[in-house]
Fold these 2 entries.
Entry 1:
Amino acid sequence: MKKGSPYKSLADLPAGSIVGTSSVRRSAQINRNFPNLVFKSVRGNIQTRVQKLDAEDSEYACIILAAAGLIRCDMKDRITKYLNEDEMYHAVGQGAIGVEIRKDNEKMRLLCSVIGDRKTTWKCLAERSLLRTLEGGCSVPVGVWTTVSSYNVLKLKAIVLSVDGSESVEDFVEKQLTCEKDAFDAGIELADKLIAKGAKKILDEINFSKIKEVKEMGLSNPQ
């Protein structure tokens, strides 16, 4: 929240309050839950965004940032509310650290196997196979929430939203894991369930809007 604000959560904010975020996924989810709020883009690194929030002439009532980034920047005191899974699904692979090596480098593969976290790998494989099957990209409103129990049971939840949050489909799968392929298959299974509920239609409309926007800008080869 803006420094000195009496509010502590999105639910506390008066109707019409402006919330800053540069993420389509975040704004779509929040707009779905808080249609009375207004969302505007805010750019820059963490310090710059916080400065924009606190400026005397700032239009923002609050901004949405990853808690990990604020903590790393020694700004944990600025966190007024952590968003749980009911309020905010995270991005595919968010928070995971990947190491890229040459395919034929067995020495590096062995080293990575020692430091790698199996459950994180399973989560990422499930989430990435979900997104790949949906044919979504990093800029579309697809959110996930993944856990792996102590008994190696994966629970993968996901949501696909329209940009304004007015349309959405969500579902989940649970699967006992014994290998990486099980995690990969779980992502495909959930994607198929979401597609059956209308996820493909939502994503196709988003992609069509992007292509139309690019054409209107006079560009013939959208990336």
Note: The longest strand covers residues 153-161.
Entry 2:
Amino acid sequence: MIWFIVPISIVICNDIMAYLFGFFFGRTPLIKLSPKKTWEGFIGGFFATVVFGFLFAYALSNYNYFVCPVDYSSETNSFIIDCEPSQLFHLQEYTLPSLLQSVFGWKTVQLFPFQIHSIALSTFASLIGPFGGFFASGFKRAFKIKDFADTIPGHGGIMDRFDCQYLMATFVHVYITSFIRGPNPSKVLQQLLVLQPEQQLQIFNILKSHLIEKGAIQQ
């Protein structure tokens, strides 16, 4: 659930903080497609979102409810959320760069690895995510419409509220697939079973030689 809640929350945070920074400090227009967007709001929203994502990731990583998958127990006839969290959600010690050591006076800090990933998510949500909104604004201006629909009174349609979320959801999927999710043994086995017998035998011999070298099996 944490991979769902954190990305959605940081997009919302970026939207709010960019508005606040732009409202109070905005002077320089950012893009013609959205005249009310300013560089001050864009930059202020970025830093605020990174900080929020980092702290929010720490808060949620402490609870199994957010990091464990939901399973159904036939014995109790109920859903249970109990597991051994992955290494992403175990505190680990990191050595700070020398510059940060001189600033904070700490040599090491304890963080959840997921917090490091949250920085990447927050950076995308702040620097690239808003362009989903810019694209939607340009699209609406091209067709001379204010909103895509009137589903939500005063806010337009679903697309008007979730234009940045669609882009963020795509990024999160690619990010998890590329950097988080490891090989699935069952899928690997399924792929092996559809190979020709001689190909399976070749893979078997390679795997056998590898396991012998590792000492996992005897020759």
Note: Strands lie at 29-31, 34-38, 71-73, 78-80, 92-95, 108-111.
